[in-house]
Write a structure and sequence with these properties.
Layout: H1 3-30, H2 36-54, H3 65-83, H4 85-89, H5 94-105, H6 121-136, H7 138-145, H8 154-160, H9 173-197, H10 202-213, H11 231-244, H12 248-255, H13 259-263, H14 266-288, H15 294-309, H16 324-336, H17 349-367, E1 376-377, E2 380-381, H18 384-409, H19 415-426, H20 447-461, H21 465-469
Antiparallel strand pairs: 1-2
Length: about 475
């Protein structure tokens, strides 16, 4: 293991985080906020630690696969630990600050603050910025900004980027990272302008864009998107949430003029089909059983389905009050999540497709044991290693979900609250049901539950293996 290079990477990441803290610090100064000193302290501590670690000179500059996984796991833990400092110095308990930071960086959107609108603008900007940083991935940002951090840097991107199959848009890793961030910036700017034209204030437009494109869900308003009472704003947010949960390689094909090739994606068609089908089912139940007008039911159903499917977590209504069938549909969508290679969380549509195809293949093997049944996705054969990793991922995902549910249940909360809190954390969605619904917060949970759910968020964002690798003794051997 190249330990010195890993330490250097962690240091570079902390330097980047300290630099990002300068932006909310400037917002706090411009707003004459009392939190300016909190950011000053946090920048100093984070910067000193980052520089000290970044000065370590490795003997080798080669990153093996396990080095990349260990580096990613350590970087995200360090980001959460130091990213909590602004909240802590602003008066929050450190465990609460850690929960809020982990929720932000992992784009989960679960919050311990009962009234976000009462927070200072500096803190609100930091909440939104952490989600924007975590959406594309901070290590991808480093790869885009720095010429090189060592050979094998592609292993960092593979460990941090979601999805069972990694796709490079350019032969060089740094070029791929830069292209991803260019698209990320363009989407953020486009939504900001659209929201401003629709009547949203500039500060709200920018922070909402940060948390939409990252599929995060933090809002500067207590009522989330419902605060604005605007159908135009709601549909703009729906459109950008949907796009942000599409594989960025497909978005690249689309903007490159290869729209037909992008539309051939099996994952994209499945993602769109699940979304449209869920909207239709919930619209019908809200209209027929809930008594809502058809357009109102469609508007609410479309927003919440896309918000939950993309694991963004915005709300225009309290879906915890919806009929049970509609709530069950949303719970299933929390499992599925968005596409691989996007900013969305969840199991990912591509894994769900592979799991169903694996089931069909096993049934075919029983019926025709002598036949060979290769599994393909988008016309390309999926190797057995990928199929095995998908099955292992899903098993570990369910195991962690059940363990987290058990831990949260120690707080003597209803089972639906414990289960949905665990599910929304590991899937990086945000709101759950009952006591952790869209109009509630996670502040009432015990410190043990908050730390457990924070770890679940990190596990879900990094797709489990990079963090588990830290507890595997063989990974630390030379």
């Amino acid at each position: 293991m190249n330990r010195k290079l890993i330490v250097r990477i962690v240091g570079l990441i902390l330097c980047i985080e300290a630099g990002c803290m300068v932006l909310p610090f400037l917002v706090a100064l411009a707003d004459h906020g009392v939190d300016a000193s909190a950011f000053a302290y946090a920048i100093t501590i984070c910067g000193i630690a980052g520089v000290a670690l970044a000065l370590v000179r490795p003997e080798k500059t080669r990153l093996q696969t396990r080095d990349g996984f260990v580096a990613v796991g350590l970087c995200w833990i360090a980001l959460s630990v130091f990213g909590a400092l602004p909240y802590f110095f602003a008066g929050a308990h450190y465990v609460d600050a850690l929960f809020e930071t982990a929720s932000g960086l992992t784009t989960t959107g679960a919050s311990i603050f009962p009234a976000p609108a009462a927070l200072s603008r500096g803190i609100l900007f930091w909440r939104a910025l952490t989600q924007w940083m975590g959406g594309m991935g901070v290590l991808v940002m480093v790869l885009a900004l720095l010429p090189t951090i060592g050979e094998g840097s592609v292993n960092l991107m593979k460990a941090e980027s979601p999805g069972p199959i990694s796709t490079k848009l350019r032969p060089k890793t740094k070029d791929t990272a830069r292209l991803l961030y260019i698209m990320y910036l363009c989407l953020t700017g486009a939504e900001t302008l659209c929201l401003r034209v629709a009547g949203m204030p500039w500060f709200d437009s920018l922070t909402t864009s940060f948390t939409t494109i990252s599929t995060g869900g933090f809002s500067v308003r207590n009522e989330s998107i419902a605060f604005y009472h605007s159908e135009v704003i709601a549909w703009i947010v729906i459109a950008f949430m949907f796009v942000s949960a599409i594989n960025f390689s497909l978005l690249f094909l689309a903007v490159s003029g290869q729209v037909r090739e992008a539309l051939r994606s099996e994952e994209l068609r499945t993602y769109a089909g699940i979304t449209l089908g869920s909207v239709l089912l919930i619209t019908l139940e809200l209209a027929l059983r809930g008594g809502e007008a058809l357009y109102t039911a469609l508007s609410h159903a479309a927003f919440q389905v896309v918000s939950i499917m993309t694991t963004t977590g915005f709300a225009t209504t309290d879906f915890a009050l919806w009929p049970r069938f509609s709530q069950s549909v949303l719970i299933l969508l929390m499992f599925v999540g968005g596409c691989a290679g996007s900013t969305a969380g969840g199991v990912k549509v591509s894994r769900v497709v592979v799991l169903f195809k694996s089931l069909r293949r096993e049934l075919q093997r029983i019926l025709h044991s002598r036949e060979v049944h290769p599994l393909s996705l988008d016309g390309r054969r999926v190797d057995e290693g990928t199929i095995s990793s998908v099955s292992v991922f899903f098993f570990v995902y369910l195991l962690i979900l059940l363990l987290c549910t058990a831990v949260v249940s120690l707080d003597n909360v209803p089972l639906a609250t414990a289960f949905s809190a665990a599910l929304t954390s590991i899937s990086n969605v945000g709101p759950g049901l009952e006591l952790v619904g869209p109009t509630c917060n996670f502040g009432f949970l015990s410190g043990l539950s908050k730390v457990t759910l924070s770890m679940a968020m990190l596990l879900g964002r990094l797709e489990i293996l990079p963090l588990l690798m830290l507890f595997f003794p063989a990974a630390w051997r030379k």
